[in-house]
Specification:
- With 361 residues, the chain is α/β, with parallel strands linked by helices.
- Among the domains are: 45 residues, no CATH class; 200 residues, Rossmann fold, CATH 3.40.50.
- The protein contains 11 helices and 13 strands.
- The strands form 2 sheets. It has a 9-stranded mixed beta sheet with strand order 5-6-7-9-8-10-11-12-13, with helices on both faces. Strands 1-2-4-3 form a 4-stranded antiparallel beta sheet, with no helix packed on it.
- α4 crosses α5.
- The chain is globular.
Length: 361
């Protein structure tokens, strides 16, 4: 290994072995690398050169490639994390917004009303009920197991869950059942305004039919007729059961004096100053039938002729006579010997009436 130009490579160095004579006479120190040579003591003079510049460049390039690859992986990781965070924020925003049956922080009266809280669902007689707050009022929407054509719905005015036979029968027919609690407002202007906004929510957000079928029991009659009077084009039919049709009858006058509890209820709802103010009131259902007759809204009343709480002669009979005089269509089912008891033992006549008049488009 000491012959002329014999060589051996070690990691990091180029090593050349020469005999002393050739080293002295024929080797120029910068011939191979352009840099000074390093002598290492050995039997034959051994020259160890620093690593050539191209080797260093090649090593640096490999090192740079590894750094670039690692940097790209880190950038990709950052991008994925940011994307996940953005998606989570968007999902949170969607959950706090509103959402058939599904409705921000405050009650609103806007072009697109929204519920004030995410609905809670429960089971109501085997059907899914959505419970939520809207304009500070408790609301229910009960889903049918299948949707009938044109999304018909029954609007229950009062006494939720009492005598539900008709409600359940219509749910089985593909109707939705809805309710907004405006208890003891007795169909006043505030109640009508709440219902106007609730109607808009039901027909825009939940896509129910633009015409409702309405159900009013007892004082519920005041609510359905008050709203229908202002919205006759939005009503397909009215079913009223032993309904209050005249505020004067609600007062239950005895010897010219109203029942104290009923009088307080009427004053709270309508702001009457005295009894004469109440007796002069002309906003009862019997006073506002012309728009309904003109729109051709069919009516069905179910009453008991022994009712002393809401006497038939003071309420339904007056309304029936006036509606027929206006050319309106009304059917009255009388339960003989029955008092203030709602519904029918066989509810089929009520169900058939509502199904016959449900909106088809």
């Amino acid at each position: 290994m000491h012959d002329r130009w014999a060589s051996r490579r070690h990691p990091g160095h180029l090593t050349f072995l020469f005999n002393r004579r050739e080293l002295a006479t024929s080797i120029t120190p910068t011939l191979f690398t352009g840099c000074p040579l390093k002598f290492v003591a050995c039997d034959s003079s051994k020259l160890v050169l620093p690593q050539p510049w191209w080797e260093k460049f090649r090593r640096d390039r490999r090192s740079s490639g590894r750094c670039l690859h690692k940097a790209m992986k880190n950038m990709l990781l950052v991008v994925l994390i940011c994307t996940a965070l953005s998606a989570a924020m968007a999902q949170t925003s969607t959950v706090t917004s509103p959402s058939p049956s599904a409705p921000a922080a405050q009650a609103q009266k806007t072009a697109d009303p929204v519920a004030t809280a995410t609905p809670v669902t429960d089971d109501w007689n085997g059907y899914t009920r959505h419970i939520f707050q809207f304009e500070g009022r408790t609301c229910y929407i009960v889903d049918p197991k299948w949707n009938a054509t044109a999304n018909p719905w029954l609007w229950r005015a009062r006494f939720w869950g009492h005598r539900p036979e008709v409600d359940l029968a219509l749910l089985a027919q593909g109707y939705h059942l809805v309710y907004m609690d405006v208890s003891e407002m007795l169909g006043n202007e505030e109640a009508v305004n709440h219902w106007n906004d609730f109607y808009k929510l039901l027909t825009t957000t939940y896509h129910l039919n633009r015409k409702a079928e309405m159900e009013g029991m007892s004082r519920g009659g005041l609510y359905v007729y008050a709203w229908a009077h202002q919205n006759p084009d939005k009503v397909a039919a009215i079913y009223a059961d032993a309904p209050v049709c005249d505020i004067k009858s609600l007062l239950a006058l005895r010897n010219g004096q109203p029942d104290p509890a009923r009088w307080k209820m009427a004053v709270d709802a309508y702001g009457f100053h005295d009894l004469n103010d109440a007796l002069a009131y002309r906003g009862s259902p019997i006073d506002n039938l012309a728009p309904l007759a003109k729109a051709g809204v069919p009516l069905l009343h179910v009453v008991g002729d022994a009712d002393t709480v809401v006497p038939v002669e003071e309420n339904t009979r007056v309304l029936e006579q006036r509606y027929k005089a206006l050319g309106g269509s009304i059917q009255v089912i009388v339960k003989h010997g029955v008092g203030h008891v709602h519904g029918l033992d066989d509810p089929m006549p009520i169900i058939e009436f509502l199904v016959a008049h449900r909106p088809r488009a």
